Amino acid sequence: MDSSAMTQYLTFDLLGEMYGVEILKVKEIRGWEEIRDIPNTPDYIKGALNLRGEIIPIVDLRVRFMMGEVTYTPITIIIILAVQTDTGETVIGIVADAVSDVLDISRDDIQEKPNLGSKIDMQFMLGLSVTADNMVMLLDVDKVLNPNYFEGLPSILS
Amino acid sequence: MSIDMEQFHQVFFEESFECLDAMETGLLNLDMGAVDSEEINTIFRAAHSIKGGSGTFGFDNVAAYTHVMETLLDEMRDGRRDVTQQAVEVLLGSVDCLREMLNAIEAKEPVDESRVAEHKKSLETELNSAQSTTDESESTPVVQEAVTPEPTVAASIEASVLASPVVWDIKFVPHEDLLVTGNDPVRMFRELAELGKLDVTINLEGLPDNLDGLNPEFCYLAWDLVLTADVGKDEIDDVFAWVEDECDLSIVLRDPVVVPLNNTDDTQALVLPEIVAPVQEVMAAAEEITEPEPTEESVEITDETTVIVAPKEKSAEKKKAASHTASIRVDTGKIDGLINMVGELVIIQSMLSLAGENFSTDNLDRLKLGLSQLERHTRELQESVMNIRMLPINFVFSRFPRLVHDLSLKLEKKIELKLVGENTEVDKTVIEMISDPLVHLVRNSLDHGIEIPEERLKKGKPETGSITLAAYHRGGNIVIEVKDDGKGLNKEVLRQKAIEKGLIADNAILTDKQIYHLIFMAGFSTAEKLTDVSGRGVGMDVVRRNIQELGGSVEIDSELGVGSTMSISLPLTLAILDGQSITVGDETYIIPLSAIVESMNMEEGQINHVVGKGEAFLLHGEYLPIIRLHEIFNITSVKSSNLIEGTVVVVDGLDGSRCGLFVDELLGQQQVVIKSLEKNYRSIDGISSATILGDGSVALILDIPGLIKLSNQ
Question: B576-712: what CATH class?
């Protein structure tokens, strides 16, 4: 791939922090609705949602990243993402506080995963993109949302 | 303009496998003494279809092979040859061989030539064995005249013709208006040139003498083409497919004498043209024959006649379930019903939109009426759509006559197979998954159940043992029974064996049922010696697992010396389930109705506490443990943890263990559509799948055996 090629990222807000996912992974964005709990799953699996007849698990990355107290308000949104796994494509939703923007980011502008000390595990990040007024953490969707890694996975804080 | 033939391959393979199944059934039904000519006709027709189809698609080895079979069958059909047991065995063997060839071709793998040659040889030996009383003057089909006298030679010539380069003489005289229709001869020649070496000679005879009379839009030219290419006539036909009606076309295979054939002597060269022409005729005829058949057959699917007796009518159903084809044949009646239903739906839709447009309270009644009709039609439509997935169990049963035939020969036992209720309809998925376990059970019955003839006579039983395969509906389930009148299961032997293998403690007290179920444990075999049929003790556990995966159960009933019956009980369909919705706190779950024994409200004093923690209650003389769903699933919003205030649903795990499931409330019973949870997530202990409720929200369906296991941890 050409290193200066632009890739579009959808950025969203998680408790005040900016995260981004490749826009081609995004299937749709929906408003928050009540979802059904799935018993005996990690607390960041919020439950399952009916997406036109398919059962979609919903992950709350705020809980996953242990970012603090989470709330679900009428403006909370769900981003439906297509995740590539070893066995094919699965569809998973994530909870976000708000969708911000679509950014064109060239590969050159993506900084390698910075070493933020041993306290934070960066294995789910593609890298960082620093713009004039913000810093966006680009998520590796296929890793962070791979259902095979959901349980028994070391948390993001090592 | 060559048409991509590969798109038709799948259909060809499907039809061929059906034909093979039909041949097999027919062969097994041949009664040595009194041969039914219709039966032989059926077999012949099937062989003929395969030959025609494989010729058309260029599977020449299959065509050549089938041709030899056909010759043999034809002699039988005309009564020139007796139907002997040996001949039938050879033919059965060649059906297998053909199937292997087709499988290999379908998988695009090389065909095992040595095996094919071996089978072909035994066919030819059979063909040449004295009996044939061919008289050349006899009025037999044209193919026979050319081939029968020296079948071996003929077959080999045919093969060599098809393999060596072929020269085609093509005379192409377009009509005047060919160019007007937008066709360009040059393009067609280019296409021909791709097939092989092409020599083109122009023929100017058609040009008008006077150039004044020449219409520039007309085509006056004609061509003589010589194509040297190893292709069939149909491939050349393809090129001319679009101009067929706008030209005079003759495509002739040049006399092969001019083609240098290796080791060709004069006689062979002379026989050749005679053979090739008929073969082409046959192929063309075969195409004609195979076409009308499917419609005729699919209409006849619902025919109630027994399969074994009338293989022709049933050949459409003969498709092997194991071949995992993605397509299914559907009775046209079912489709008509569907179309009807959709029509009704459209009418109601327009009626409703009319009622909605000029809505007033006056036509509230009409609106209500429309809605109730809509509901009814939707339900009917749903049922009919589900019905399409339903296939007769015969798809599985039809393979057993052959299996029993082969095994009984091998084991030197005399066995009669009875099929009962083979038109019982089951979901396609069930059909696919049940065939392997059934084969296993039948093999077991054959090998372990039925005794050898001498032993049977000694016991005062008829010499011929019987195995019955029966299918019938019971409630929302289909029951498949494998019943034999063999020696039955010996409880003592089973028990001893289990103790020996350390599967049970030697002082364990087991009910009859539990003892019989021992045979489903891995590594358990009571056969005194291993045979290649069965006895390794793997398999029965697989049988049980397969059946449990389908949400079914197996029961064994047996009497020593009299016989045993295995009953497999399966849900009719895997896509819809009758469920009871229940609530625990804010959550709604579905319990499969089939798992519910009863539900009850507990009373004070009915509950016994065991060692302070466990809870149990007495029901019909049996102490059942209580599982609190809210505890297992960590539901904090539970209404009340007091057993007396909620409801206890008595549920049945598949292995006969029962327990009481403590929930808040029972809601209603409803049919739910099963949605996979694993597709986008993963399997969860105690949950089998999910569904969507009427309000669009998700509800999870409980997996009762899984729940019981979970509670035991």
Answer: mainly beta
